[in-house]
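Supplementary Data S3. Sequence and structure tokens for construct A.
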Amino acid sequence: MNSPTGGPPQGVPTLTEVVDWHDSAAPPSTPSELGDEAAIADPALMAAPAAPAELPLASLPTEAELTEQVLMQVQRQLDLMIEYRMREALAPLLARATDGLVREARNELASTLRDVVTRAVAQELTRHRNR
């Protein structure tokens, strides 16, 4: 089945070959044409209808379409990379800023609380002296 050099089996085109189905005999499409081994190996071939002689070629994208597709893919990758890098760079900065804000808020709250308690104690002492 394999060729003596260890390459593909005989009759199987390689990547460097171009096969023109129109010039040569049509490829086997039914199980009887493929042989019993192929029919047994692939039961789907038993029920598969014969392929049409000519398949319509898919239209190739234009240069502008390809450019747009590549640009969209690159933009998507850049967006993800920039977001990741920004998060990575900003996380320590934001953590330090948050710690600083919390410290300042605690200091302000403690100062305000001292002032409120001092005023309340002074008012209470004044009220007790006037009795």
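Construct B, processed identically:
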Amino acid sequence: MLVKYIIIQVLKAYKQAVQYYKKELEDWETYGQAKIVLAVENLEKLSSFYEKAKKLGVNCCTIKDAGRTQVEPGTLTCCAIGPGKVSVIDNITGSLSLL
């Protein structure tokens, strides 16, 4: 079975951007507040996208599930990347398919 992980979690990324990425957040709020959901094949790939974003200095955070539905508590289920420049985000996630 192909497991799909979602690359989005707006609230946590927003809170982090308020504190550390003010210019990127201002641009995101001014120019449209895009939220794009992408899929990766497995946890290892999800982690690699997170590490690439982190290395490039892009706002990013991982999300662990509370375990109230289908997965165990503490399971890494998604990653938020951005807000940031479109060209930089595309460099990180451009190879992924829309979910």
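The chain has one domain: 5-98. Confidence is low (pLDDT under 50) at residues 1-8.
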